[in-house]
Request: fold
Amino acid sequence: MHLSANNPRTRADFLTFLRHARQQADALLLLGDIFDVWIGDDVIERPPSWLNEILGELALTAVYCPLFIARGNRDFLMGHGLCDALGATLLPEQILLETDAGDVLASHGDEYCTDDLPINVLNSGLENPGFRRYF
Reply:
């Protein structure tokens, strides 16, 4: 969705989606790139108004159905602080879901872009345990 202050229509549509999910979903998985950029979980201490509204709606959604969040290439700094504040579960990069239709592999998918050398170099640095332990 790449939510930000600059896309009010997308934000409005996303909030409508969340309202429907609260009424109809058994669980909700958001597989990354929820935000156009996420600079770290400390932003939730004093979020701008547009973000505060989204965080409130996500937290409310987690009350009605389990909310699972995965990191994307735009919001890879989302962490346990955000998920704890929302009542959500932070997913690993890949997760195998057992569904009535059979097993489904869920992932943001950037790790499958093997020809994208710049992103692969960036991701290898981000996977460094010394860096990731903070998120």
Q: What stands out?
A: Residues 4 and 36 are 6 Å apart (CA to CA). The chain has one domain: 8-132. DSSP finds five helices and five strands in the chain.
